[in-house]
Specification:
Jelly Rolls; elongated; four-stranded antiparallel β-sheet
């Protein structure tokens, strides 16, 4: 591994082997960004221009239905990658990305990633891995939604306990596709 690598380059190197020249080129593209609580990083209808590693903080992605009701798609904790195949393919996103706590993120633009792919063919393997990981996260969420409300709650309580310390009941309920009242009732049984 290179000396003084950014957290984003170090993270990507930890999930797949990246050559030293690719890591050095990647380092030149990393941008650090800071966000305040409840800041929208990008909105539905916009094309996501970059992907991020959440170095510190907490974020979520969500969409609005026609009536304006929010549905949380995903939560992101420290050391998690926020990646979008839509952004990579330069397609408008249909969701919002919101920072929920003061957050620091490292980013690389998708344009920069495409330039890396032109110069370093091994980048294609990294992109395929990131697309596959996004697909697997979406598959897990779809399978979660096939469970009963009680099973959804139990599974998330077991696999993402920190969520219950950092997110509001309203946001967790929107993620689990249930009412706040139902989630509060399920949580109350655990007390």
């Amino acid at each position: 591994m290179l000396m003084n690598t950014s957290p984003l380059t170090a993270f990507l190197s930890s999930i797949t082997a990246l050559s030293a020249p690719l890591q050095e080129a990647m380092e030149q593209l990393v941008i650090r960004e800071q966000y305040k609580p409840h800041q929208i990083v990008h909105a539905a209808g916009q094309t996501e221009s970059r992907f991020w590693l959440l170095e510190s903080g907490f974020a979520r992605s969500y969409y609005l239905d026609r009536a304006g009701k929010e549905y949380t798609l995903a939560f992101y904790l420290e050391k998690q990658l926020i990646w979008s195949a839509q952004g990579y393919w330069n397609e408008p996103a249909d969701y919002y990305l919101e920072v929920l706590e003061p957050s620091v993120m490292s980013a690389i633009t998708y344009r920069g990633l495409h330039q890396l792919a032109d110069a370093f063919p091994e980048t294609a393997e990294l992109v395929q891995l990131l697309i596959r990981q996004q697909y697997q996260r979406e598959l897990i969420k779809n399978r979660l939604m096939a469970l009963s409300a009680d099973e959804r709650y139990r599974q998330i309580r077991r696999t993402m306990p920190e969520l219950f310390r950092r997110a509001s009941v309203r946001l967790i309920a929107s993620y689990l596709n249930m009412t706040r009242e139902n989630l509060s009732r399920l949580m109350g049984r655990d007390l």
